[in-house]
Amino acid sequence: MRKDIFIDAQIANTFAGSNLCQHVKDLIDWLLTIDPINHDNEAHLVSSQYIRAEYWGGNNHCLKEYSIVSIYTELQKRDRINFKGKEEIEKFKRENISKKKWGKLKSKENDKNHIPLVFLSDRKMVLSNDNSFIEDLINFPKFGNDVKLARTPKDLNYK
Asked: Are the C-beta atoms of 1 and 13 separated by less than 8 Å?
């Protein structure tokens, strides 16, 4: 199983800031660390076209060392993006989310497609501080109990 993690854009887009706390620095180091002996220990970022667009839009193509754009680009070079295509996301939605349930989700419209992405990931591990998104994940039938959620890296056992 890949050591993957979904990082919400609200959090990821702060990585390029100048006053990063040690917990965020540790998360970024974990994401970028190469394990020459056991590649199974290496981090993977859960992604789709939807979250990637949010990363790029929120960073305005920022290429600072710790920007999510730079981190994403580096992980992509190393084949460490757990990317789910639109077809996979749509299939999950058809099979698991009725139109009525979709309409009742509290997440913003652009965040709703992240819900299937999380459930399609290997570890269902999420770093987010978006209350509506978190509530939708926790209360999702069949899968909500499987999600590992935290609002800050220090509260998530991602390693």
From this structure: no
* This model's pTM is above 0.70: yes
* DSSP string over 121-150: SSS-EEE---HHHHHHHHT-TTTGGG-EEE
Q: Token digits for 142?
A: 């069949």
Cβ–Cβ under 8 Å, residues 5 and 123: yes
- For the stretch 65-83, pLDDT in tens is 788 999 999 999 999 999 9
Q: What SS3 state is found at 83?
A: strand
What's the Rg (C-alpha) of the chain? 15
Using one digit for the tens of pLDDT, what is the confidence trace for 10-56?
999 888 777 889 999 999 999 999 988 888 889 999 999 999 999 98
Largest interatomic CA distance in the chain: 48
Buried b (16+ CB within 10 A) or exposed e, 50-75: bbbebbbebbeebeeebbbbbbbeeb
Alpha helix ranges (H) inside 5-157:
9-12, 22-32, 49-59, 68-77, 86-96, 99-104, 114-120, 131-138
Mean pLDDT on 103-117: 94
Cα dihedral: 122, 32, 157, 56 (round 10)? -70
